[in-house]
Predict the structure.
Amino acid sequence: MAYIPENGEQCPPTPSCVAGKQLLTTPRPPSQSAPRYPVLVLWVFTLIAGFVTLFHYEFVGAAPSGSPAVLPPAFYAESLPLRPTLIYFVHPRCPCTAAGIAELDRVLSDFPEAFETIVLFPMPEGAPDDWSEGPNRAAAARLPGVTLQTDTDARHSATFQVTTSGTALVYNKKGELLFQGGLTASRGHEGANFGERALRALARGEVPNHNRTPVFGCPLRHPVPGEAQEVAL
């Protein structure tokens, strides 16, 4: 056992005393338990970043693009429709747009004669023939009084400068743009929202409180068939 001198006592030259003196002068190794504060700060930062990313994904949509203020003549036959024209752009494989189709169904069910409604399915160049088939087209086919069109090579969506699935455009009988935007309040969620209220106001012949709303959906002209990416541009 090592002898440890106390109160300035001289250490006799014995092995035990020398060993004890070494115990007093040898620095102790640092504690094995490192401070946890940096780990905690990193965890909190990661948690906050995750919430911000999730919030942005769910509730920050794409701003409606600058669609033509007047309905392009190439989109109608010899004369303007007798009712306002509602054009709804759908990526056939975008899961978010299903909620928008459901909202449109409610509006058209309540106002079946209010619009000339066209649901467009842009087909990117080089896409297979069955590109526009799927649940979204099947749901759109059940909408009352609508016309379904495949937008070959996405020409119409380019003309209207629409880039995001779930975009609705409404033109009055004179061909003037009255509304552009989405029909959901967040990504893939049904429920009351400014876009749906705007369509109801227009169906009643009223001026909507909002004529532009954000759009939650996938890029319409995504190049890889079957791999729609949900984005907020």
User: Anything to note?
Assistant: The chain has a mean pLDDT of 77. Strands lie at 85-89, 116-123, 146-152, 167-171, 177-181.
